[in-house]
Amino acid sequence: LRSTLVAGQMAGTVILLIAAGLFLRALRSLETLDTGWSTEGVQVASFDLEYGGYGREQGLNFYNELVDRVRELPGVEAAGLARKPPLGGRSSFGGINVAGVEAPQGRDGFTAYLNTVTPGYFETLDIALLQGRDISDADTESGRSVAVINQAMAQRFWPGDDAIGRRFHLGQVGEGRAIEVVGVVENVKYSRLVEETPNFYYLPLRQWPNAQMTLHLRTAAGAGNLAPGLRRIVRELDAGLPILSILPLDEALEVFLLPQRMAAWVTGIMGFIGLLLGAVGIYGVTAFAIGQRTREIGIRVALGARTSDVVRMMAWQGMIAPLAGMGAGLAIAFAVTRFLVSLIPGVSPVDPLTFGSVIAGLFGIALFAILLPAGRAARLDPSATLRSE
Prior knowledge:
Layout: H1 2-31, E1 42-48, H2 56-70, E2 76-82, E3 96-97, E4 112-117, H3 121-124, E5 129-132, E6 146-150, H4 151-157, E7 167-170, E8 177-185, E9 199-204, E10 212-219, H5 227-237, E11 245-248, H6 249-252, H7 258-292, H8 294-302, H9 307-318, H10 320-336, H11 352-378, H12 382-388
Parallel strand pairs: 4-9, 6-8
Antiparallel strand pairs: 1-10, 1-11, 2-10, 3-7, 5-8, 6-9, 7-8
Helix pairs in contact: 1-7, 1-10, 1-11, 2-5, 7-11, 8-12, 9-11, 10-11
């Protein structure tokens, strides 16, 4: 019964530690993932002009003045507005269509997502402009409708061709609003750190006004906290308008790593507790078994058995239950971790480094827990042992 309990403890510990290791590896993978944008020196502040009852033109004027004045703050290298910050979710006007490109079967258009931005947004986040131009202040409601698209969208609709000057339609061709492509930027992460890159386009704020916007500003090294200066500017523009939030972009993005961090912590703590219980259990079972065989050990030593032989024998017999538990835990982990694929992006659910490290570590701890009582028993005086028996 004791051996069965030890085997069960080891199996559970293997599963928990492997899960914790996979979550930690995934967390490291996400932290080093190339997102396409940079958070270095970037701060974000969110606004909602609906609180102030702003109209369309009044709202545009406020945001234009805000960006212009923020760019004058000491240490600010670039600034721009966007409806959604990085990983802030997806917005869509529905399916889009391109003349000469047939929509997927059973659908009335291609899935595409969007963000509304101002000049300076791409520069602030260091999103590379691959072709054409950026959104400009000249892109107003009175001009033609324009957009900057991502590289994936350009390659899907115009593979091998220049996308600049081409058009896509919001809705059906000839019915929906036609948008002219004026620039192509590199692909970035839009709503999740692990996603298949969608069709994505950026619209000028002046053509598509929105009350809710997020200010992005990049500062030079050592510029310090710009919150006081930003609050002063907002008070001067509208003393009654609140800043919904202002913080470094990398801190704002921490929430997207929270599930992996929590999973790693919880499984890691449970695995550590299981490891302690397993080690204590192995030690206790081995010590008890050796105590029951003291006479046998004394006779073996009296007949000439070497200490190393006795220790080897006890270690081999004592490792049977832990090895059985590790084998069972390994088999279960192979089956269970396949369901964690969505939670461990960038890491194989049967990652050999994680599996190998856990098994090697547990083997070493189990062996150490066995060798302690086995070594003491092998060093007993055989004559004293036999007399006591």
